[in-house]
Predict the structure.
Amino acid sequence: MRKVYVMKYDYLNYLKIMVFSYHMIDNVVFIGTSHISPESIRDVKRIIASKKPVVVAIELDRKRLSALLSKKKRKLSLADIGRIGLKGWLFALFGQWIQKKLGKKLGVLPGSEMLAAYKAAKQNGCHVALVDQDIEKTLRNFSRRLSWKERWHFLVDAIKGLVFKKGVKFDLRKIPEDALIERLISELKVRYPNIYKVLIEDRNKVIARNLCRIIVRFPDQVIVVVLGAGHVREVKELVKKYLKDYDFIH
């Protein structure tokens, strides 16, 4: 896998970035996806093939990419609790169950569009950049921050959804509309503030800073960014902010 390195900057580079950073994002194409949507798989293949970007940045880390590429899916073991914490382990276990259930129902495994983006990038001779936070760090943070209140909310919401069939309904095979995404994120932020911070806010900052480094290394060249639809709006805003403030070196 080709690697995108973090560049070191001298004073002249700094001045150049400060003058042109506002326009650097013009060459960045964001693809907002649904992780279980055949439509998203088609979109990433089509756009990467047509745009021929120099870099395809994907919402994955090395461990998650390795898991997607592996034919033999690794199951969680009790030994993993020591690395990611009990709550993170339970969350990952629940996630594996959901993935299996949705995969059988829809015929598309979660993350298939990210794997499709990786393969399309390779086929078209693009660099691949894995811009997400390490999954184990995310799960450790989840273990540390999940509150009792949020656990209770999760239990109540699960019962409402599974037993009484209440909650927001939408077609899992399609990418949600922007208004629906904003509504779901707003509800998550209010009802599950710590989960929102760990799974969305913190990761968005990591993704945005990694994208800034790529944008600066490949100025005036097309970059395609493949993210879950719920990340796109805030990541775009953070990228503009970090480029303007030069806040992405650390």
The chain is about 60% helix and 10% strand. Residues 11-245 form one domain. The CA atoms of residues 84 and 228 lie 23 Å apart. The longest helix spans residues 193-217.
